[in-house]
Amino acid sequence: MENNNELNLNLTGFTKEKLEIIRREGVASAPKEPLPTKAPEVYGMTGVIDTPANWLEKRIKCIDIKKANVEVNREEMTVKLTINEDDAYNKNSFIGTVAFSQIFEKMGINNGQKAWIPAELGQFFRINRHIFRDKEECMLLVSKLKNFMATTNAKIQKMKDPSGSRAEVYNSSVESNLPKSFIIDTSIFKGTAKESIEVEFDHFIKDSDVYLQLISPGASELVEAYKDKCIDSVLDRIKIVAPEIPILEK
C-alpha cells in the first residue's frame, strides 16, 4: 500500500535472488471526446445522357429501388435518377444531359436570344473556317459580311425618313450582298458525328444597327429526332435493369 513516498510490498514466495522493482508515477490522460458526427458526402453527379443508366447498371444491388425515381425533361434534354428519395440525409441524384457542341452553341443557331453584328459574324467564320467544306466560299462570305455592315449602315444614315422605309433598304442590302443560306459541317451535340447543316440568315434593325440571326430548320429537326432517340435509349436501359423504378415525364 502506498503512503506518501513510501511503498510497502508483501512478497510471497520470494527467494534470495536479486529483485528489481520499478515504480512509475503519472496522471492518467483524460478520455478522448468522440468525433463529431458528419453528414455523408454527396456523390451524385451530372454527366452525359447515359450517366444515370451507367450508374444504375453497376449499383442496382446497393439501393432500395422502392425509394428511387427517374425524372425526364425532354425540353431541357435531361434524365435524372434519384435514390433515397425520402431521406434528406442520404439522398443523391445522377443527372444525364444532352449538350450542344461548342461550335453549334457559340453560333447560336435557332437561338432567338443570339444576335450577330455582321462584321463579328464574319470574323467568327474566319477563325472557324474548318466548319466549311470550301474554304474559299468561307472567305467570300466573310468579305460579304464585313462589307455588308458598312454598306447598310451608310444607307440607313442617309435616309430622310428611317421609320418609313428602313426595312426596305435593309432587305435590299441582304438580297444583294448575302447568300440566302450556306452549308456547314459540324456536330450538333457533343460526342456525335458531324452533320451537314444548311443555315439561313434572318435579320432585324435596332436603333440603326444591323443584326443577324442564324436559322436552320434542318438542324431543328435533327435536334428533336436525336434528343428523343437518345433519351428513349437511356430509359429502355433503366427499364431493363430496374423495371420497378417509376419514370416521371415532365
Explain this structure.
- The chain folds into 2 domains: 45-99 and 226-249; 111-215, no CATH class.
- Helices cover 36% and strands 21% of the residues.
- The protein is built from 6 helices and 10 strands.
- The strands form 3 sheets. A 5-stranded mixed β-sheet has the order 3-6-5-4-10, with helices on one face.
- Strand 8 and strand 9 (209-215) form a beta hairpin.
- Helix 1 (51-59) runs parallel beside helix 6.
- The longest helix is centred in the last third of the chain and has 25 residues, at 217-241.
- The model has no long low-confidence stretch (mean pLDDT 83).
Helix-and-strand structural type: alpha+beta
Shape, per Cα inertia axes: elongated
Largest sheet: 5 strands, mixed
User: Total strand count, please?
Assistant: 10
Low-confidence stretches: none
Strand content: 15-25%
State the helix count.
6
Strand order of the largest sheet: 3-6-5-4-10
Mean pLDDT: 83
Distance between the termini: 81 Å
Radius of gyration: 36 Å
Brief overview:
With 250 residues, this protein is of the alpha+beta class. Helices cover 36% and strands 21% of the residues. The protein has two domains: 45-99 and 226-249; 111-215, no CATH class.
Notable features of this structure?
single chain; 250 residues; alpha+beta; 2 domains; five-stranded mixed beta sheet; three-stranded antiparallel beta sheet; 6 helices; 10 strands; 36% helix
Please specify the SSE layout and strand pairing:
Layout: E1 2-3, E2 6-7, E3 45-48, H1 51-59, E4 69-73, E5 78-83, E6 92-97, H2 102-107, H3 118-127, H4 135-158, H5 162-177, E7 181-186, E8 195-206, E9 209-215, H6 217-241, E10 247-249
Parallel strand pairs: 3-6, 4-10
Antiparallel strand pairs: 1-2, 4-5, 5-6, 7-8, 8-9
Helix pairs in contact: 1-6, 3-4, 4-5
